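Progress note, sequence design subtask.
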């Protein structure tokens, strides 16, 4: 059975949209998924499903969460191999130990319009660099994400798509946890 990684957007941030990881795992299991593992409070879930369509999986998870909590939680579902390719193509290589807290991956729910991306590519901030790819973004914030002007909300606003960010260390851990 294929393994997937679900990335939830905007839960457990500043006391908003609180979801306990044990409850989240239970919702996934009640939704028919197996081998469910959660990682840290930011909403990372590894699971198995016979469904091959990641968009259908996203809708199924979003519906289950909305039913359980009464609000929409955007979910992005990726295969392990997709995340491996994204990591291996990171333009910020070679990565050293200091980069794990400065290099981020923003995963986009949809592919932004080309003209929107072209306009946004002109955006420049000191100590911050980014590369927009099809439905993900590589981001490097030399001063850390907490001080970055290029944050998830800005990318969502300018590219007009939902997104969620994970640092390099978290993405590597998700790949490790999702090994067979």
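Output:
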């Amino acid at each position: 059975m294929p393994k997937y990684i679900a990335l939830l957007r905007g839960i457990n941030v500043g006391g908003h949209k609180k979801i306990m990881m044990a409850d989240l795992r239970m919702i996934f299991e009640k939704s028919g998924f197996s081998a469910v593992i959660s990682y840290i409070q930011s909403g990372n879930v590894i699971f198995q499903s016979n469904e091959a369509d990641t968009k259908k999986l996203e809708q199924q998870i979003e519906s289950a969460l909305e039913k359980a909590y009464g609000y929409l939680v955007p979910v992005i579902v990726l295969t392990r191999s997709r995340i491996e390719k994204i990591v291996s193509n990171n333009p910020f290589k070679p990565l050293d130990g200091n980069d794990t807290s400065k290099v981020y991956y923003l995963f986009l729910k949809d592919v932004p319009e080309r003209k929107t991306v072209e306009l946004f590519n002109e955006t420049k901030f000191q100590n911050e660099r980014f590369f927009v790819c099809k439905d993900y973004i590589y981001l490097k914030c030399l001063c850390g994400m907490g001080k970055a002007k290029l944050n998830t909300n800005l990318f969502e606003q300018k590219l007009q798509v939902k997104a969620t960010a994970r640092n390099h260390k978290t993405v590597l851990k998700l790949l490790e946890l999702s090994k067979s």
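Residues 83-177 form a domain with the Alpha-Beta Plaits fold (CATH 3.30.70). Work on this subtask will continue into the next period as scheduled.
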